[in-house]
Each structure stands twice: as structure tokens, then as C-alpha cells.
Amino acid sequence: MLLDDISFSVPDGSLFAINGPSGSGKSTLLNILTGIDRYDSGSVRFLGEELGQRSENQMARWRGKHVGIVFQFFQLLPTLTAKENVLLALELAGVVARKNWEKQVESSLRQVGMLDYANRLPSELSGGQQQRVAIARALANDPPVLIADEPTGNLDSKMAIQVFTLLEELAQQGKTVIYVTHDRALAARSTDFIELLDGRIINASTRAYGKAV
Ligand SMILES: Nc1ncnc2c1ncn2[C@@H]1O[C@H](COP(=O)(O)OP(=O)(O)OP(=O)(O)O)[C@@H](O)[C@H]1O
Ligand SMILES: [Mg+2]
């Protein structure tokens, strides 16, 4: 069993850190929260709904609407510009009406301070700028929750702080941001955290810890 006896709630609008050594189950836990990995016992409730009862297709549609995902290695498509990368996320999710795509791309890029770079390819951007475009892509459908697995893990410390500050601002504006980090300083800026070891919670500071929802 990869995860065991895990029970926690993520408060709306929190900046929620998941900590723990390599192999402790952090990515597995995020993948369960996004419905990418399935769980065979227990329950995950998201905005009052149980996730486990959906088909793969339903889950993918659900994800497009409710969750924005940010990866450690940005995962931008190298042949598309910043703007086209964000646009593709809108097309794939089918949540926002086509007539609003242009406006939505612009507002997402503006939100992360990357509007001036809209026509650049990823290779023409720094790591921190690429990650900001990736955050714009995650924001494009205006999901209530952002999930980020080591979003600053591939950035130097100055860029890591810039990118993290952006996530912090998004949480202050009402998004719920769940992130994995190895960086103690960034973990300390969370509003709530859990620490994993061998698939279990060994330490937690969250307003809702222990309340299974
Ligand atoms: N697809 C898989 N099949 C089987 N075991 C897996 C799979 N993915 C991960 N594991 C195992 O599950 C455990 C948790 O892995 P996970 O990737 O969640 O760790 P992590 O905390 O994210 O580590 P890291 O900090 O290195 O990213 C590890 O023991 C790992 O070997
Ligand atoms: Mg991991």
C-alpha cells in the first residue's frame, strides 16, 4: 500500500504544502487528488463530491474544469508560443466558450506577468518565465484549485522565490494552492501543511487536520 491512514482536509483558499522525503508518497497523493491515480479504499471528496465513482473520461473532464496542474519541468510544448500553449489548454478542456478564448489567454498571461512574452517560444524564455507561462496555462480555465508538484524544483533560488510568490498571491486571491516542495523556506510560507513518511502523515499543521471530509 503506497498511502495509508491519510486523512486531511484542504481549506478553501489555503496555500497547502506537502512535505516529505523522496519516495514518501507526495506525488502519489497529488495524483490521487487529481484523479490521475485511482485508490482502492478510502474516500476523496472534492467540493462535496466523491471522486472515485467517475470513469476515466468523466475524470478528465472534471479535471479540466476544477484543477490546474503545474509540473516541475514546466511541460510546455516546445513548438508552440507562450500564448499558443495557454490556448491549447483552453481548447482541450472545452470549459470556456471559444469566443472568450482570446480574452482568457490574455488575462491569464497578464496575471502571471507574461503578457509581453506572449509570442515567444519556450526556448526563448528563462526557466522562471516558462514556469509562469505554465501557471498561466493552469489558470486558463479559471479552476478553483491549483496543484503543483515541486513547481520550483527546477529553478534557481531567485526564480524559485518569484514563482512561489506568484502562487502565494493566487492563494491570497482565493485559489486553493496545493504544492509539494523540498524547500523548507517555501514550506514555511504555507498556511497549512502535512508531512509524509512512508505513505503516512507524520506531522501536520492544518486547520482541518483529522477531520475526514
Ligand atoms: N507507478 C508506480 N508503481 C509502483 N510503485 C510506485 C509507482 N509510483 C511510485 N511508486 C512508489 O510509491 C512510493 C511513493 O512514490 P512517490 O512518487 O509518490 O514519492 P514522492 O514523495 O513523490 O518522491 P519524490 O520526492 O522523489 O518525487 C515510492 O516507494 C515509489 O517507489
Ligand atoms: Mg514526487
TrEMBL record:
InterPro entries recorded: AAA+_ATPase (IPR003593), ABC_transporter-like_ATP-bd (IPR003439), ABC_transporter-like_CS (IPR017871), ABC_transpr_LolD-like (IPR015854), MacB-like_ATP-bd (IPR017911), P-loop_NTPase (IPR027417)
Every ABC transporter domain range? 1-212
- The reply to whether Transport figures as a keyword in the UniProt entry is yes
Which domain of life, per UniProt?
Bacteria
Per the record, what is one GO cellular component? plasma membrane
Task: Supply one GO molecular-function term.
Answer: transmembrane transporter activity
Q: Which family does it belong to?
A: Belongs to the ABC transporter superfamily.
In Swiss-Prot or TrEMBL terms, this protein is called ABC transporter ATP-binding protein
The source organism is Dictyobacter kobayashii
